[in-house]
Specification:
- The chain contains 9 helices and 10 strands.
- It is an alpha/beta fold and 238 residues long.
- It has one domain: Copper homeostasis (CutC) domain (TIM Barrel), CATH 3.20.20.380.
- The two termini are 13 Å apart.
Length: 238
């Protein structure tokens, strides 16, 4: 299981790298669950990482095909290993599939085939303003995304561990794996949740708040990332 740490700046990227993160994820925590950083900030993050780790990017929640295709192209062209796209504004799954396909086209073209798309489902989805997680698996597979992330949209509400039982989560992960998708888990995970993510079968566990001093809108520190890295290594050795 790989450790992904979301960073908002080059200095945070340096801290995540020093702490042992496997993936450095560019995200603006002040702009929601999937806030995109400016392209200039993404380039600064790339420069700070110096090619030592893959850099990934959040693109926000898609509502327009042309817009998300262009954004996926631009962030892929800037060097993202994959881009994360959510779909909070709609539960029309035909529209969600069209948006996902648009993101895949943009990422593939911008990254010359080297950048994939990770579709983002929300464990706190209500089925009215956000697609339910089960509904997104088949869409993500048909659209040829490389993976799916289960996160939480409301960062003031309960985390993934409070929203899903271990059995329900493991079942969801298995279904996504059977569809050929890499699976990432996030959503207010703490260092104590590393084993929870591993036991569910996650390929990637994503962290922001647990990697920061002062919560998710605080500052990523090497010490906090190192703790996550140590916990992850210990859990994988069990």
């Amino acid at each position: 299981m790989r450790l992904l740490v979301s960073v908002a700046s080059a200095s945070e990227a340096e801290a995540a790298l020093a702490g042992g993160a496997d993936l450095i994820d560019a995200k603006d925590p002040f702009a929601g669950a999937l806030g995109a950083v400016p392209l200039s900030t993404l380039r600064d993050i790339h420069a700070a990482v110096r090619g030592c780790r893959p850099v990934t990017s959040a693109l926000g929640d898609a509502s327009d095909g042309d817009t998300i295709e262009r954004a996926a192209f631009e962030y892929a062209a800037a060097g993202s290993a994959f881009v994360k796209v959510g779909f909070a504004p709609t539960v029309n799954m035909a529209h969600v599939e069209q948006l996902t396909q648009a993101a895949v086209r943009g990422a593939s073209a911008g990254g010359r085939g080297a950048c994939g798309v990770v579709a983002v489902a929300y464990a706190d989805a209500d089925g009215v303003t956000r697609p339910r997680p089960d509904a997104l698996i088949d869409v993500a597979a048909r659209a040829q995304t490389i993976g799916i992330l289960l996160d939480t949209a409301d960062k003031h509400g309960p985390g993934l561990r409070q929203l899903m039982t271990p059995d329900a989560l493991a079942s969801w992960v298995t279904r996504a794996h059977n569809a050929g998708l890499t699976v990432a888990l996030a959503g207010k995970l703490t260092a104590d949740d590393v084993g929870f993510a591993r036991d569910a079968g996650a390929d990637i566990a994503g962290f922001r708040g647990a990697a920061c001093e002062g919560g998710r809108t605080g500052r990523v520190t090497a010490e906090r990332v190192r703790l996550l890295s140590i916990r992850s290594a210990a859990e994988m050795a069990v």
